[in-house]
Amino acid sequence: MKILVLPFLILSLAMTTHSQTVPSGNILHFYVGTYTDNGSEGIYRFGLNTTTGKLHSNGLAVLSENPSYLALTKDGKHLLSVRETREESNQSMGYIELFNVDESGNLTSVNKVSSGGAHPCHVAVNEEGAVVASNYSEGNVTLMRITPEGELSEVLSADLHTGNGPVADRQDKPHVHSALFEPRGKRIFVADLGIDQVKVYTIDKTTFTLKPFKYPEIRMVPGSGPRHMAIHPNGKLLFVANELGNSVSVVQLLENGNFKIVETVSTLPAGYSQPNTCADIHLSPEADYLYVSNRGMNTIAIFSVLAKEEKIKLIGHEDTMGEMPRNFTLTPEGDYLLVANQNTNNIAAFKRNAETGLLTFTDQINAFKPVCLLFK
Q: What is the reported pTM?
């Protein structure tokens, strides 16, 4: 079943109705980042009933311009949002905004700083308060920090990538798309769609600047366009979703610090020839299954993870019940998977079978241009 784009007035009414009626049961709240060019006003809050699988809206959480990616600090007391813009106050820069999060999940803006480049599309934060922004159009990665006073610092370090790739209309220059902190290590992996590389950094503790790792990049398949990443909890495997190649690369993280691409597997079924690009990627909590969103086919590709063999196997696809699934997320326990369908203005919920990894649709709800989902 496909969800049709609803007119603005009907969408507004539907969201208002849902926000007035909150169902009883076990509720998990989550934030929704949006593009604010189609009726959205910023970051919204929704809820998932984990007993019934039903969704409801809590309305607007805070005003913001193009808050297209969100991240929470580990203690849950701060939320970071990109403002994916090119120009503001006559500057060719986007912004990163820091919010305080109270016990009820309400957001209060603390401060907003330049991201150090145009169109920031991703922000990540580690346990020590280091913040990394990925500036897509600028082609650079920047480093900030949350200060002891609870504010976001200005950019403290930046690295501008160079090069291009074989896909002329998408890889004419670097396009930094995301960053991932290594959970138990000191490295930062940065996916650059434009140059087919995952750059690798560490943070110099003395100067608090980005420093290339001794093995400074992972060279991906030419034309693949690495976009987002996930790391196995064993610390030995990195999974890279390739936007242009419609594939996932399994990268071995070797004990000497170097890297080896084990395999690259398509996210599409055999014989599929329609336009498609990959977007988001996530592991299940137990790391037995890997999920990747297909934009065009409009599915979640489901892989089983063969950790001992350091390989993955495509086992199925689930229709996202909408179009252009830019982002998705799993509940903290992994019982549900939620998808943000950007072009059809809806969020879809699926019950996840932990044994098989497969998904079952439970509900969908209208949302303005949803492009990022984040559980509180």
A: 0.93
